[in-house]
User: Fold these one by one.
Assistant:
Number 1:
Amino acid sequence: MRTRGLLAVLLILATLTGCAQSVDPIERLGKKAAERVRPHGPDAGPPHRRWGLTAPLAPAPTRPSRPSGPLSGSPGGTALPPVVDHVPTRDRVVFLTYDDGAERDPRFVDMVRDLRLPVTMFLTDSVVGPGYGHFARLRAVGAGLQNHTLDHAALRGLPYTGQRAEICGQQEKLHARFGVRPRLFRPPYGTYDTTTLRAAADCGITAVVLWRAAMGPADLTYTRGTHRLRPGDIIAVDPDESLGPTLRERTTRLLRRIQEQGLTVARLEDYG
Ligand SMILES: [Zn+2]
């Protein structure tokens, strides 16, 4: 009798515990998804798994195939720099670019290092502010640092002297901070005119870089052409974390899209 009573109590307890564990499977799935993109978690395994990818990123070709690259203008020459949102290449690669320099998550540096992710950062001095140390760390793990003006002004329509000050001024800042002389320039908001191209050339810029695809809070959007990634596409990752996923999560999603389409990531500067 006593044993049977005890068994009954145990059975009830087991049922209750079982219920508690099976509550809200969606929530548990959500937690699992969150764990997948969390680095250095309990299941920290190979780098690609730590950052939410099911397979490692394929290495970019060691010898880029770049037919007379549109990124290779003539610095100081009379020709205006080309404006590019796509690099013609037969390599199955795309290029990752990040703007402004507002987001300074130290774990993004870990991500770039762990995945050996070749990224290009277009920096604006007034946005980076006191955060140049973060970009020095990114540079140390392989990120390219390029020019996105001093103050993020919309350049189109501004007089030559103003445009030149915005571009050359940031060339000087980046040189003073990192010893680099950027060759690539992205105009804020993607807006420019021929004065911009002239000023950029006079500041040592060899290509003005826009983007054909943008990774927003939800998914990829395209500025023109086919609505899927193509080899040579330049992708801008929206840096605004105020709405939706963090820069790291956005990057993981984007890398999954890139892998789904049989592509990998290459360094933009290697194709210029
Ligand atoms: Zn910007």
Note: The chain has two domains: 1-37, 53-271.
Number 2:
Amino acid sequence: MQIAVSGGKGGTGKSTVAVNLAVALAESFKLVLADLDVEAPNDHLLLGVEPANEREVREFMPRFDYSKCTRCRKCAEVCEEHAIVTLRDGTPFLMPNLCSGCRACEIVCPVPGAIGEAFKVIGHTYVTETPYGFNLVSGKLKEGEERSMPLVVEAKKRARSLPHELLLVDTAAGTGNTVSKAIEGSELLIAVTEPTPLGIHDTELILRLGRLMEMPMWVVINRADLGDRRRVYALAEKYGADVVAEIPYSENIVRSYVQGKPVVLWKVPEARVFRGLAGKVVDFLGGGE
Ligand code: SF4
Ligand code: SF4
């Protein structure tokens, strides 16, 4: 089983919900939490753990053998990323940061051996044992790299390869193709929002995506006391989503970030909100152990 926690806008508290939900749900399921916000993963910070078991994610890059290359320019012409520039005599040069690893240049090159294989490391995945009875899998894109999709795919694959009953996916902000990839295969999409005009605007985008992907949707309102919650309820109704929890603005939650200790384990009223949400997920998924 898989569920996803997402939110159109950055900074809505998506990771707070994912992490606290994971801690509570780990009492009912053998759980893996996947932090697929590969440009800015932060679940490990909220859980107070150091990413471990690093594994490189590599991508193909062409390596030119100039002793064989006939300077025909076909590789540069086929490259949609414009990652190959040619000199006046046709000699090809690669701009590695633009290369997407599609291999079109290798396929089109008419001279056997003129393009060989090289690889570049575009990021890393991690599997970290947490003190809360579940593993955290995360992906981190290398600085300067722009293509996050291969990282999302690899991190998700690594998460799925671990023994689990429930995979809880924490996506990036926005509604780009990496978010769709992260959400793909989920039984339930939980959209975290805040009742501000920007939060509501971006939540509509994620609910639109969820409807397109035909999955049941829930909405969690974070900092619920700081805006007009009625607009969130109206939006949820429009998309057939249920508003399942309201989290008030809370200094305890802020303190829990700083300490790297999930608030769901604290003896404070906020913990009950996350436990209540976890209970609803257990009911929705039909049990656990
Ligand atoms: S692998 Fe694809 S993106 Fe990279 S240089 Fe070749 S054609 Fe261009
Ligand atoms: S397609 Fe092959 S032979 Fe032609 S310029 Fe590129 S590397 Fe050289």
Note: The chain has two domains: 2-56+123-285, 58-121.
